[in-house]
Amino acid sequence: QEALVTIRLLDVLCEMTSNNGQLEHLQAFPGLLETAVDTLRLTHLAGKQAVNIFTATHAVTGQEEISHPAVGFKSHLIRLIGNLCYKNKENQDKV
Fold first, then answer.
1. Which residues contact 62 (CB under 8 A, 6 or more apart)?
2. By C-alpha distance, which of 72, 81, 64, 88 is closest to 17?
3. If you average pLDDT over residues 2-6, what whole number do you get?
4. Where do the domains of the chain lie?
5. In whole angstroms, what is the distance from residue 32 CA to residue 43 CA?
């Protein structure tokens, strides 16, 4: 249940950063970019330490796996990072 809430919140952040009216405020929000990058890094490391949903070789084979909340987690993080770096040289340099 907590994982679903986290995924939904991440999805909301991705949508908010897709909106030009909110983008500038979120790009300047202290810590958001750093937290997203750190979370992506930790997620990637978790996938390297053991075979799990974050493992790079994980293959999606069935419909039930596609609906698993963690499948799109990394892609949402990458989308958020990309949005936060859009037309923002300072954030681009941080990444």
1. none
2. 81
3. 79
4. 1-57+65-93
5. 16
